[in-house]
Structure to design on (125 residues):
């Protein structure tokens, strides 16, 4: 029975180590893909002002007509909102990754202590 429990805990520990590695590999998404995000923001900022709104009270009217503003003003507003949302998402994802890593590291330390193992370079010895 003890061997089965030890085997299970080792498998959980290996899974936890892989999850930690996976989080490290995918953290910093906004920074790693900055040019793609900027390109999407520019595209949205240039395309949205002229688009007509779909199913709403303003059906068929563009944001330019509704806001009674010039094209460049609406583009700047959309670009600013996009930037604010991306910054909020960046810090939100960063916080989420930090909390998840903290939880995984606590789980890893607890399992190592229970198993009495020595971990060197994230490999079980």
């Amino acid at each position: 029975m003890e061997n089965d429990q030890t085997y299970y805990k080792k498998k959980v520990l290996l899974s936890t180590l892989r999850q930690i590695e996976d989080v490290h590999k995918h953290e910093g998404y906004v920074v790693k893909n900055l040019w793609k995000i900027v390109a999407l923001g520019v595209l949205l900022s240039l395309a949205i002002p002229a688009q007509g709104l779909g199913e709403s009270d303003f059906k068929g009217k563009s944001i330019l007509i509704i806001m009674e503003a010039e094209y460049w003003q609406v583009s700047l507003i959309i670009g600013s909102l996009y930037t604010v949302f991306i910054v909020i998402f960046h810090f939100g994802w960063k916080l989420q990754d930090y909390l998840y890593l903290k939880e995984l590291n606590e789980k890893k330390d607890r399992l190592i202590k229970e198993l009495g193992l020595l971990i060197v370079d994230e490999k079980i010895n």
Notes: The beta strands are 119-120, 123-124. Residues 71-115 form the longest helix (45 residues).
